[in-house]
């Protein structure tokens, strides 16, 4: 099978952990141990988040003079290289020496008129207290919003329209490479009035970009790996139930939160509808069973309705 695995941010850095290189490598090593289990007999493409990493680089950039700071699209490109390098190394240490790897800087087109630019929602960087967040917003011109009981910076999150490097990704897969691409949702770009491609100050949702990537690669399976073993109704309440299987229409009616499970559900539904294939939301620790079809929330148009575990 051709499988696209979208790694959640927790696979790189757990909430509240210091953003050290050692912590990130340790988490990626754990993720690599799980992904290595499904490599035999499958073609693998790995996408990943980058919110904490691009936020850290953005903070570093604030120490520069205003005209010296790098924009978010350039910082996103930096994180693709940094994270891809660690994934390649840790996964390569587990697989046969002859298995080839490639990390691709991935430009993704967005629409200049996307309404997301008027309402920033994408969290990046570390968490702050309300007082610190309000102070930083005033000092740096940020938009900040509540993230649980803390606050974080938010930027625009436009929808992905086109992945420019889709052809070289396919070429690499044809040569049996494991490809790491579309990190952080890809590098957001758009055409200007003169039809010149340029970067834009935004962060594309990783899961929505992964769904587009999987669709354009004609993948057999999209795995959206997160820190819970399924999508739930009434999550965190005594009445919570894990969703085992769902038709996209039924799943969308449940109304998942935009700041957590919402984008994952939307991505899974988009992929299932557009391709007729299966998308699964689940825990990275269950990835073998997800591929076997016995774990996670499976989203497909092949069956009507919704069922629970």
TrEMBL record:
List each copy of the Aspartate/glutamate/uridylate kinase domain by range. Answer: 1-281
> Example GO biological process term?
L-arginine deiminase pathway
CDD domains attached here?
AAK_CK
Where in this chain does the entry annotate a coiled-coil region?
none
Which residues does UniProt assign to the signal peptide? none
- GO cellular component annotations, sorted alphabetically? cytosol
Q: Please name the GO terms that the record assigns under molecular function.
A: carbamate kinase activity
Keywords linked to the UniProt accession: Kinase, Transferase
Q: Which domain of life is it from?
A: Bacteria
Quote the InterPro entries the UniProt record gives: AceGlu_kinase-like_sf, Asp/Glu/Uridylate_kinase, Carb_kinase
Q: Which family does it belong to?
A: Belongs to the carbamate kinase family.
| Protein name per UniProt | Carbamate kinase
């Amino acid at each position: 099978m051709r499988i696209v695995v979208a790694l959640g941010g927790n696979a790189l850095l757990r909430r509240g952990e210091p953003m050290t290189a050692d912590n990130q490598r340790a988490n990626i090593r754990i993720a690599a141990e799980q992904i290595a289990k499904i490599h035999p007999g499958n073609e693998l493409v790995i996408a990943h988040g980058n919110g904490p990493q691009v936020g850290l680089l953005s903070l570093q950039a604030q120490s520069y003079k205003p005209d010296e700071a790098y924009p978010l699209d350039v910082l996103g490109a930096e994180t693709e290289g940094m994270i891809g390098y660690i994934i390649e190394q840790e996964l390569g240490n587990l697989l046969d020496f002859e298995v080839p790897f490639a990390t691709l800087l991935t430009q993704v087109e967005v629409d200049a008129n996307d309404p997301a630019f008027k309402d920033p929602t994408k969290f990046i960087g570390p968490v702050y207290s309300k007082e610190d967040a309000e102070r930083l917003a005033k000092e740096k011109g940020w938009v900040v919003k509540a993230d649980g009981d803390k606050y974080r910076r938010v930027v625009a999150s436009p929808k992905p329209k086109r992945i420019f490097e889709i052809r070289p990704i396919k070429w690499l897969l044809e040569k049996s490479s494991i490809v790491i691409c579309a990190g952080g949702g890809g590098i957001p770009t758009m055409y200007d009035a003169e039809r010149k491609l340029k970067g834009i100050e935004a962060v594309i949702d990783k899961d929505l970009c992964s769904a587009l990537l999987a669709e354009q690669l004609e993948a057999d399976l999209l795995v959206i790996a997160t820190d819970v073993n399924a999508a739930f109704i009434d999550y965190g309440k005594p009445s919570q139930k894990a969703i085992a299987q769902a038709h996209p229409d039924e799943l969308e009616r449940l109304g998942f939160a935009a700041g957590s499970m919402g984008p994952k559900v939307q991505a899974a539904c988009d992929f299932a509808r557009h391709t007729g294939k299966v998308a699964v939301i689940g825990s990275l620790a269950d990835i073998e069973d997800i591929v076997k079809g016995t774990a996670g929330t499976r989203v497909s148009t092949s069956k009507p309705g919704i069922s629970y575990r």
